[in-house]
Amino acid sequence: MEALHAKDISTSQALAVLNAGTERARQIDTRMNIAVVDAGGNLKAFIRMDGAWLGSIDIAIKKARTARFFDMPTGEIGKLSQPGKSLYNIEHSNGGLITFPGGIPIRDSDGTVVGAVGVSGSTVENDHNVAEAAAKGAFK
Fold first, then answer.
1. What pLDDT digit, counting tens, does each position of 115-133 carry?
2. 83: alpha, beta or left, given left = phi > 0 and alpha = psi -120 to 50?
3. Cβ of 71: how many Cβ atoms within 10 Å?
């Protein structure tokens, strides 16, 4: 019988994601909540930048979990969850999902999803921008 070998994001990689995300947020002059989940969708690392919205803590975590649960950016899930689309109402599953931009799967060099990042605290465009920069930070 073949054994399964799961890959996961390490603590140092999760911290690198937070660092890359906070650096990008500073560059665009915004304050963010940034959450990193592991391959199982469990919270691995989190930071709330000074002054970031309290209400965005839960959103950042849910964006990260959503991106990991479906291995795609949350904005893409949002497009599929509109009325008449194949994933309509999916945001009500799994204890609540977030289906607008700001969640990105984190993939290793061979494309395996090892976790995800979720960012919230500004416009969805800024959230997505910071999430993309943060996700790239894991393997620099």
1. 999 999 999 999 999 999 9
2. beta
3. 11
Q: Which residues contact 43 (CB under 8 A, 6 or more apart)?
A: 35, 36, 37, 61, 64
The domains found in the chain, sorted by start residue, are 11-139 (3.30.450.150)
Locate 139 and state its tokens. Answer: 């393997």
Q: Is 97 helix (H, G, I), strand (E, B) or coil?
A: coil
What digits encode the pLDDT tens for the residues 80-90?
888 998 888 88
* Rounded CA separation 19/137 (Å): 8
Asked whether the beta carbons of 99 and 72 are under 8 A apart, the reply is no
Q: In this structure, how many other beta carbons lie within 10 angstroms of the beta carbon of residue 140? A: 9
Gap between the Cα atoms of 65 and 54, Å rounded: 18
